TrEMBL record:
Signal peptide: none annotated. Residues 68-163 form the Methyltransferase type domain. The keyword ATP-binding does not apply. This is Methyltransferase type 12. SUPFAM superfamilies: S-adenosyl-L-methionine-dependent methyltransferases (SSF53335). Keywords: Methyltransferase, S-adenosyl-L-methionine, Transferase. GO terms for biological process: methylation. One of its GO terms (molecular function) is methyltransferase activity.
Length: 265
């Protein structure tokens, strides 16, 4: 496991302040924030750019089952779990993000429970509940003590339940670009913490709590940033010239997103 910053690491208050200033994906729409049109555009853009998410989450699989999301953000995946009929609970550190997730459920008439709290103490935040799925996409690598999240989450997973998480991949195109000074972990600069992992690092992180059943990589962001922020989707020339099968092979080997499915032990 490696980190994007040298020690000492920032604290949880620094992490919360960072995401409160600009919640993840908040600029995915030009519509008035909090409207139905805004949330629809946020969802459309998120899944256009990261089309692997629905297949990883398998929203329909959790109909009638209890789902806990650690780090619900603006509630995009939350909305789709709830729409599919899951008994949904979300935990979020950023008060700004949490308020929008709650608003989203109100706008679409969805049912769910939301908690403001630290993922490292998620069992205390949620209370004595057991879930069929604990899900977290792109969150755990941003907290000072990811292992604490895993240990806390283990207390909440049913014996026959499942953990599905996304962590940033150390051996990836994005990590190479960051190291070379051509990129940064997040859209906004100054991210306090962004750990990255190898497959062995994932196993070490989960050891004694969960046993991985699948670890795979996906997602290379291919678009010209200057055009992307204007909602124009033009691939970088080196990706544009690449056959789709070749690009997918590159994503499988050097994708930024490490997609992990695991069973409790």
């Amino acid at each position: 496991m490696s980190a994007s910053l040298a020690a000492p690491l920032p604290g949880i208050d620094d992490v919360q302040s960072y995401w409160d200033r600009r919640p993840c994906n908040i600029r995915h729409s030009k519509q008035p924030i909090g409207t139905r049109e805004y949330f629809d555009e946020v969802e459309a853009r998120k899944y256009f750019v990261e089309p692997h998410i629905p297949g990883f989450a398998q929203f329909d699989l959790w109909k009638g089952r209890k789902v806990l999301e650690i780090g619900c953000g603006l509630g995009t995946d939350a909305t789709n779990f709830a729409r599919a009929g899951a008994d949904y609970t979300g935990v979020e550190l950023s008060a700004e993000s949490l308020a929008l997730a709650k608003k989203r459920f109100e706008v679409f008439g969805l049912k769910g429970r939301f908690h403001h709290g630290n993922a490292e103490q998620v069992d205390s935040v949620v209370g004595a509940e057991q879930f069929d799925l604990v899900y977290s996409f792109g969150v755990i690598h941003h907290t000072p003590n990811p292992r604490a999240v895993i240990e806390s989450a283990r207390k909440l997973v049913k014996p026959d339940g499942e953990l599905r998480i996304m962590l940033y991949a150390e051996i990836s195109w994005k990590a190479i670009m960051i190291e070379a000074g051509f990129d940064q972990p997040e859209a906004q600069s100054g991210c306090p913490i962004a750990f990255t992992y190898t497959a062995d690092g994932v196993r070490d992180l989960l050891r004694g709590c969960f046993e991985p059943t699948e670890i795979r990589q996906d997602h290379i962001f291919p678009y010209v940033i200057e055009k992307y922020i204007r909602y124009e989707y033009e691939p970088q020339p080196w990706f544009k010239a690449m056959p789709e099968e070749m690009f997918k092979a590159l994503e499988r080997r050097l994708g930024w997103h490490m997609l992990i499915t695991a069973k409790p032990v």
